[in-house]
Design goal:
Elements: E1 5-8, H1 12-23, E2 32-35, H2 39-49, E3 52-54, H3 58-63, E4 66-69, H4 73-83, E5 92-95, H5 102-109, E6 115-120, E7 130-136, H6 142-153, E8 156-160, H7 166-174, H8 176-193, H9 198-219, H10 223-229, H11 236-246, H12 249-269
Parallel strand pairs: 1-2, 1-4, 2-3, 4-5, 5-6, 7-8
Antiparallel strand pairs: 6-7
Helix pairs in contact: 7-12, 8-9
This protein binds NADP nicotinamide-adenine-dinucleotide phosphate.
NADP nicotinamide-adenine-dinucleotide phosphate (NAP) binds near residues 10, 38 and 75.
């Protein structure tokens, strides 16, 4: 097994993974190969991370056992049709493209023995705080799955799930940053409406959210228990929570995630 890892597509997500695996010491710079058509991106990746870059994806298949497909979902089919002859049974193909099922890769590559791992990461991976879910097909051994898991642990938390659960993951953590950003935006506007400057409101809102997450993680307590601790009798917080519950906040969030899960299922059916 060659100790080199290859990326096909050197965009934002590939860059986050490269940054994470170098920082974690998982692979040395020299052992990371990237195929990327864009000259500017190749120069950027070489100069910033000292990785090897190529215009063609042939060196990736020739030198790497683990190959991460990091192109947009809409260009995936063309890429697979172009490289299907080069995919061999020792390659561990890992795709981070949203929505495309493992069956899509196997059908397009046309080889039953292809080892395929599908990953649903999220955008905080760009700052090494991602949440990724991994699913494999039967051709991938436990040891090979572990090698893939290590890569995504370098950019955050990882869960291993059957592929059937990836639509739920898309609705929760994949699309989740959008809900969190919307909540924070609303919190900032609320501060401004109450008379704070936008700068002050933004600073307080961001710290309130990140501090609350840290408190949850470090205390190990259930969110309801911590909420109970900040709602004093007849106080401001319980008065505000009353408003949240009257509009059905809990149910709204569950509906929001469910809508994204349904949409993910719909998109997964489209070829
Ligand atoms: N960004 C995220 O937060 C995020 C989150 C979850 C999942 N994902 C998934 O991650 C994948 C990559 O997303 P991204 O944001 O990193 O996209 P991106 O920045 O557009 O990167 C994709 C790169 O692949 C290059 N490329 C296109 N065709 C290629 C080919 N045949 N061979 C080699 N390289 C090729 C593109 O070059 P050109 O620009 O010249 O076409 C581009 O530089 C997507 O499938 C997306 O669904 C991304």
């Amino acid at each position: 097994m060659k100790q080199q890892i290859g990326f096909i597509g050197g965009g934002q997500m590939a860059e986050a993974l490269i940054r994470g695996i170098i920082a974690s010491g998982l692979y040395r710079e020299n052992d990371i190969l990237v195929a990327e058509p864009n000259d500017f991106r190749r120069d950027h990746l070489e100069q910033t991370y000292s990785v090897k870059t190529f215009e063609s994806n042939v060196p990736i298949f020739d030198n790497c056992r683990i190959i991460i497909l990091a192109v947009k979902p809409q260009t995936m089919k063309a890429l697979l049709l172009d490289c299907r002859e080069r995919v061999q049974s020792h390659h561990i193909m890992i795709s981070i493209a949203a929505g495309l099922p493992i069956s899509f890769y196997l059908e397009t590559i046309g080889k039953n023995d292809t080892k395929m791992i599908r990953v649903m990461p999220n955008t905080p991976a760009l700052v090494l705080e991602g949440a990724s879910a991994l699913s494999r097909n039967d051709n991938v051994s436990d040891e090979e799955l572990r090698a893939a898991e290590e890569i995504f642990l370098a950019v955050g938390e990882v869960v291993i799930l059957d592929e059937v659960h990836l639509d739920a993951v898309t609705g929760l953590s994949g699309s989740g940053p959008a809900y969190v950003f919307s909540f924070i935006e609303a919190l900032i506007d609320a501060g401004v409406k109450s008379g704070l400057t936008r700068v002050v409101s933004e600073k307080l809102a961001l710290q309130t959210v990140s501090g609350s997450v840290k408190l949850l993680k470090e205390s190990g307590e259930h969110p309801a228990a911590l909420r109970g601790k900040v709602t004093s009798p007849g106080g401001t917080a319980i008065t505000a929570i009353h408003v949240l519950e009257k509009v059905g906040f809990h149910g709204i969030i569950m509906d929001v995630v469910e809508a994204a899960v349904i949409r993910s299922k719909e998109l997964g059916k489209v070829e």
